[in-house]
Design brief:
With 415 residues, the chain is an alpha/beta fold. The chain is globular, with a radius of gyration of 21 Å. The strands form 5 sheets. It has an 8-stranded parallel beta sheet with strand order 6-7-8-9-10-11-12-13. It has a 4-stranded antiparallel beta sheet with strand order 5-4-3-18. Strands 1-2 form a two-stranded antiparallel sheet. The chain has a domain of 232 residues: TIM Barrel (Alpha-Beta Barrel), CATH 3.20.20. 40% of the residues lie in helices and 23% in strands. The longest helix has 19 residues. Helix 10 links the parallel strand 8 and strand 9. It binds magnesium ion.
Length: 415
């Protein structure tokens, strides 16, 4: 079904008086919001159900988006975002959206394993209370180790529903009020000259922080950073990511060589499982160390803190199996006086918007690496976060504030 935007705002208790002040994303050429099935008056439906709406249907889609060019890092190459889209439809007509972005070399999942897990989770959750996020997370726990990204997609869709029921953008629902979010943009592995050219283009587009992939030989990596620093000058910030590519001695050598280029931090210099090695590198490195692939779930955060293995955490919604765990990690880190970054895989603006909402609601997340969609050939998301240079602006519409373009959705293969 379709309702007009004015009707939609009325159902949220926003009335029409404020219509002109609220940015309304357009759906294709139409000026209507499309909710699929459901009653026309959402608020009435929510009231009648006493906030106990049930999960009526869960739609699972193969969500494929090609990349402009292959994206190379030390442990693998990505040629497309082979994601999974989840739509949780309630008996009140509200729909929650979520996205999984599995990346085999890091999380050990594929689109197919995510889809298989999603079928099981669908069977578990159908008919259940759509707002009982904590209970659903408990049930999905066995999948957090094996398919964290698909759990993230469900968790995200439940948060979308909670925000919509509350009539608040998700970051406000989570108690946030930040508007200072700024992301870096990533230069992937290539010849030093090509990487320097890309970095320069990003700086010209307004990005103030460049993240550079390294993790091959320390000599080649130094040549990359030297070329980039020469191309972009002294002002832009450079942070690097070795993606586990170095051994401990290589990491120490590389980081000492790179000190003079004034780098902000280095992500994951050594193998994810080598927590002792990470600690040794941190002790010897003149550049702060951030754990990325060593950190998935809250339990990993505790292990890294106990080992004194890093200066910063890179939280990713896909590794953490969702927003709830991402928030838990940020809180654990805060108690240990460790600052965090919110990172990404190659997800669309749907999952990136979810991550940005979490960041806007947490002052312990001080860095953002939310550029995944910039390498996509198409952007199928309507609404959601906007990027201007590196500056992120969040939508003020309830929940995640995202819809999938209906024309794009129609073409997706449904499970
Ligand atoms: Mg990383």
């Amino acid at each position: 079904m379709k309702i007009s935007r004015q009707e939609f705002l009325k159902t949220l208790g926003l009335g029409t008086a404020v219509l002109g002040t609220i940015p309304i994303p357009l759906l294709s050429s139409s000026s209507e919001w499309n909710f699929g099935a459901g009653p026309s008056n959402q608020t009435e439906a929510i009231k009648k159900s006493s906030g106990r709406m049930k999960i009526k249907e869960i739609e699972i889609y193969y969500f494929d988006i090609p990349l402009n060019q292959p994206f190379r890092i030390a442990i693998g190459t990505v040629t497309a975002a082979s994601d999974v889209l989840i739509r949780i439809i309630t008996d009140s007509g509200l729909i929650g959206l979520g996205e999984a972005s599995p990346f085999l070399p890091i999380t050990g999942e594929t689109q197919e394993t995510n889809v298989t897990a999603a079928r099981h989770i669908r069977e578990m959750l159908l008919g259940r209370d759509a707002l009982a996020l904590e209970s659903h997370l408990k049930e999905m726990k066995p999948f957090m180790q094996t398919n964290p990204s698909i759990v993230a997609a469900f968790d995200m869709a439940f948060y979308d529903l909670l925000g919509k029921v509350a009539g608040l953008p998700l970051y406000r629902f989570l108690g946030g009020d930040r508007s200072d979010l700024e992301t870096d943009i990533t230069v992937d592995l290539d010849e030093p000259k090509i990487m320097a050219k890309r970095a320069k283009e990003f700086v010209n587009r307004g990005f103030r922080t460049i993240k550079v992939k390294v993790g091959q030989s320390p000599q080649l990596d130094e040549a990359r950073i030297r070329a980039i620093r020469e191309a972009i000058g002294e002002n832009p910030t450079i942070r690097i990511d070795a993606n586990q590519g170095w051994t401990v001695p290589q990491a120490i050598e590389a980081l000492r060589r790179l000190e003079k280029y004034r780098l902000e931090f280095c992500e994951q210099p050594v193998a994810a499982s080598d927590i002792d090695g990470l600690r040794v590198v941190r002790e010897e490195s003149p550049i702060p160390i951030m754990a990325d692939e060593s950190l998935f779930l809250p339990v990993d955060a505790i292990r890294l803190i106990k080992a004194g293995a890093c200066d910063y955490f890179n939280i990713k919604v896909m590794k953490a199996a969702g927003l709830a765990n991402s928030i838990r990690i940020a809180h654990i880190a805060e108690a240990a006086n460790i600052r965090c970054m919110l990172g990404c895989m190659v997800e669309s603006r749907l999952a990136l918007t979810a991550a940005a909402h979490v960041m806007a609601a947490n002052h312990n997340i001080i860095f953002a690496d939310l550029d995944g969609f910039t390498s996509h050939t198409v952007d199928p998301i309507i609404g959601g976060m906007k990027l201007d240079g590196g500056k992120i602006t969040l939508p003020e519409t309830p929940g995640l504030g995202c819809e999938v373009d209906p024309a794009f959705l129609k073409k997706l293969r449904r499970v």
